[in-house]
Amino acid sequence: MKKLFVLFFLILGLGSVVLIQAEKNSSKPTPVTVPGDFAVIAHRGASGYAPEHTLEAYRLAQQMGADYLEIDLQQTKDGVLVAMHDDSVDRTTDGSGLVSSFTLDQLKELDAGSWFNQKYPEKAEEYFSGISVPSLKDVFEEFGTSANYYIETKTPDAYDQMEASLLQLLDEYHLLETPQSNQVIIQSFSQESLLLIHQSHEEIPLIQLIPKEKAAELNAEDLARIRTYADGVGVNYNHLTADFAHSVREAGLDLHPYTVNTVPDMADIVGKGATGAFTDYIDLAEKTN
Ligand code: G3P
Ligand code: CA
């Protein structure tokens, strides 16, 4: 009788696991077909499935076949570049305060994964808990030349020598040796930051990010000016009109809208001629070849 009970609960347990898995799989959307050269950019890593800007999110992005790992840069008190979107650690760690008020060692003490488990219990994984904030060097150590990187100098005015530190690290990890392969793309909302990089490394492909309120204001002349130093623009997809998309492509610029997280939005920007997209859900796009 006792054995029967154990068997019953085992079957019940197994059934629940299968059901949860089926539930997870059934929520997967049918991906949008995109051209083979369309750049699928893993926004903050596979941040729809793992804590943003952690090695786990980047690993998952690579496993899922992303073309680029997107990395936002902040800088620690001791001048180390780290992968983090916000200038404070409050949202994505268990600490509080500006990134620039922490040394790298202090930052490494923080838990950069538990917030995700708490916020998204349906996506929680035990191993996310306690993971740390990676430095850019950590990312290059792990992925080296096996990945493509799409790196944003975030609020570079707030930091000393962010561009110089980035270029030095890229050089150290042999990531500037084949610029024609577009293995590294640098993006920024700051035109000054991009121009600074262009002055010393004009071979590095650059993307000018456009603030959402500015997209409608840019004319052909503005786009031609951007074309003198950048290869493309990153635009908030909510503010991407068909006319503007056409003008961008006419100007010979790539068009990478952000952050495209649903099938209809992905289909919409592909229809408007986007040549890539930032997305938290890499599996929204499927290459034709
Ligand atoms: O870098 C493109 C996109 O990521 C810009 O938005 O705020 O996520 O960095 P944000
Ligand atoms: Ca970014």
Q: Provide the low-confidence segments as ranges.
A: 4-10, 14-25
Bound molecules: SN-glycerol-3-phosphate, calcium ion
Tally of DSSP β-strands? 11
Order of helices and strands: HEEHEEHHHEHEHEHEHEHEE
The Cα radius of gyration reads 21 Å
Structural class: alpha/beta
Describe the sheet with the most strands.
Answer: 9 strands, mixed
Instruction: Describe the global form.
Output: globular
What can you see in these coordinates?
- The protein is of the alpha/beta class and 289 residues long.
- It has ten helices and eleven strands.
- The protein has helices at residues 2-26, 55-63, 104-108, 114-119, 136-143, 162-172, 191-200, 220-227, 242-250, 263-271, and strands at 32-34, 39-42, 68-75, 81-83, 149-153, 184-188, 206-210, 232-236, 254-258, 276-279, 285-287.
- The radius of gyration is 21 Å and the shape is globular.
- It starts with a helix and ends with a strand.
- It binds SN-glycerol-3-phosphate (G3P) and calcium ion.
- Calcium ion (CA) binds next to strand 3.
- SN-glycerol-3-phosphate is lined by residues 43, 72, 85, 152, 187, 209, 234, 258-259, 278.
Overview in brief:
This protein is α/β, with parallel strands linked by helices.
Layout of secondary structure:
Blueprint: H1 2-26, E1 32-34, E2 39-42, H2 55-63, E3 68-75, E4 81-83, H3 104-108, H4 114-119, H5 136-143, E5 149-153, H6 162-172, E6 184-188, H7 191-200, E7 206-210, H8 220-227, E8 232-236, H9 242-250, E9 254-258, H10 263-271, E10 276-279, E11 285-287
Parallel strand pairs: 1-11, 2-3, 2-10, 3-5, 5-6, 6-7, 7-8, 8-9
Antiparallel strand pairs: 3-4
The chain binds SN-glycerol-3-phosphate and calcium ion.
